[in-house]
Write a structure and sequence with these properties.
Structural class: alpha+beta
Helix content: 25-40%
Shape: globular
Largest sheet: 7 strands, antiparallel
Strand content: 25-35%
Number of helices: 11
Number of strands: 20
Oligomer: single chain
CATH architecture of the largest domain: Alpha-Beta Complex
CATH topology of the largest domain: Naphthalene 1,2-dioxygenase Alpha Subunit, Chain A, domain 1
Distance between the termini: 22 Å
Strand order of the largest sheet: 13-19-18-17-16-15-14
């Protein structure tokens, strides 16, 4: 069924190409400027979005073998993901039960046991406490009650999703709203991670707005790739997730063949976003390169960090790694010096109070939908969350 969805989206794209049109919302949408700056608003976003919904924190290919792990800090929470000998991925708060030390340094690796660097308390891949040095001298402690604190985790479409709040459940089906069936066509299960960039940026929503906006491409990126880009955008959505494409004249050639024979690799272009913080875009470096950008809020409303992950869809050679590194350097420069440089200037201007609102035009449906979802999730209590994600909000469409 997901291939038929790709074909249907291509058909809609072709219709817009022939008509010279793009998607249009009902009206201009306004967002209070304070939503990008206010510390209380930012805290609500952390508590009601980043601490409640599943976040895309890793790739199945990073944790391909039993014993593989990945450690990182997200929204102030140290997270450890590990694939056990049984093949299952588990996630934990990366914090020792003894005195709260970070157990595993950030990064990826392989380990059968995780030993705290402070006093040597040791945990297995299930998070169980399996070693206490000088246990008889320490005192009466039941190891079964003092394992690593688990976090809800799920794998879909070659991606690893984690909920940052201990004790919270994960309803990955409600959250994905069928989007994972489309993401399966991106073949992340078979990809190889070949590089990363880390870029400091502005407020997370200032930064993320740009991933949903083609309107700016030929203007802001006129010195890089913008002159070859158009401004028109088409939007498809599944729950809070979106795909952004351009009317693509090359799709007209697809009509020369039966739909069942349409080339899948031509149908998966555009920018795929995973709410609330991930953007996926493909590039040609003589072979296909995926850039998966994970955007994380910083410690204040004014800051964020983006991790650009670069993946290739086949076993990489040295030549491929070198070519991908060149592409990665270019994209780091574009985002750092064009997108996020502009984003910081936006923040400084908004902080003056000279404008009370920012606007998203009828041609900027992605930004409109994103901000409506942010508002809806902030307003939803815990009992309403799964229903909201699975059924969607009419106002976001």
């Amino acid at each position: 069924m997901s291939f038929e969805q790709l074909v249907a989206m291509a058909r809609r794209n072709i219709a817009h190409v022939k008509a010279g049109t793009q998607d249009q919302e009902r009206d201009v949408f306004r967002v209070p400027a304070a939503d990008y700056l206010d510390a209380d608003r930012w805290q609500l976003e952390m508590d009601r979005i980043f601490k409640r919904v599943p976040l895309t924190l890793g790739f199945s290919s990073e944790l391909r073998e039993p014993g593989a792990y990945k450690a990182m800090e997200v929204a102030g929470v140290p997270v450890l993901m590990s694939r056990g000998a049984d093949g299952a991925i588990r996630a934990f708060v990366n914090m020792c039960s003894h005195r709260g030390a970070i157990v595993v340094d950030e990064g990826v690796g392989t380990a059968r046991r995780f030993s705290c660097p402070y006093h040597g308390w040791t945990y297995d891949q299930h998070g169980d406490l399996v070693g206490i040095p000088d246990r008889s001298d320490f005192g009466d402690v039941d190891p079964s009650c003092h394992g690593l604190t688990p976090l809800a985790v799920a794998e879909r479409a070659g991606l690893v999703f984690v909920v940052l709040t201990p004790g919270a459940a994960i309803d990955i089906d409600a959250f994905m709203a069928g989007y994972d069936e489309l993401l399966d066509h991106l073949r992340f299960d078979d990809c190889h991670v070949v590089g990363h960039n880390r870029i400091d940026g502005p407020n997370w929503k200032v930064a993320y707005d740009g991933y949903l906006d083609f309107y700016h491409l030929p203007v802001l990126h006129r010195e890089s790739f913008g002159p070859d880009m158009g401004t028109k955008a088409l939007y498809d959505d599944w729950g809070p997730h979106q795909r952004v494409t351009m009317p693509n004249p090359s799709y007209l050639k697809l009509e020369e063949r039966p739909e069942a024979e349409w080339d899948e690799t031509k149908l998966i272009g555009g920018v795929w976003t995973i709410f609330p913080h991930v953007s996926v875009a493909g590039f040609d470096a003589g072979f296909h390169v995926w850039m998966v950008s994970q955007l994380f809020p910083g410690p204040t409303a004014e800051t964020s960090t983006t991790i650009q992950n670069f993946l290739v869809t086949e076993e990489p050679t040295d030549e491929m790694r070198a070519a991908a590194a060149g592409q990665a350097a270019f994209l780091e420069q574009v985002v750092r010096d064009e997108d996020y440089h502009t984003g910081r200037r936006i923040q400084r201007a908004l902080a003056t109070g000279a404008k009370r609102e920012v606007m998203f035009g009828r041609n900027e449906g992605g930004g409109q939908r994103f901000h409506r979802w942010v508002d809806a999730l902030i307003a939803a209590d815990d009992d309403e969350l799964a229903g909201l994600l699975s059924s969607g909000i009419e106002a976001a469409r």
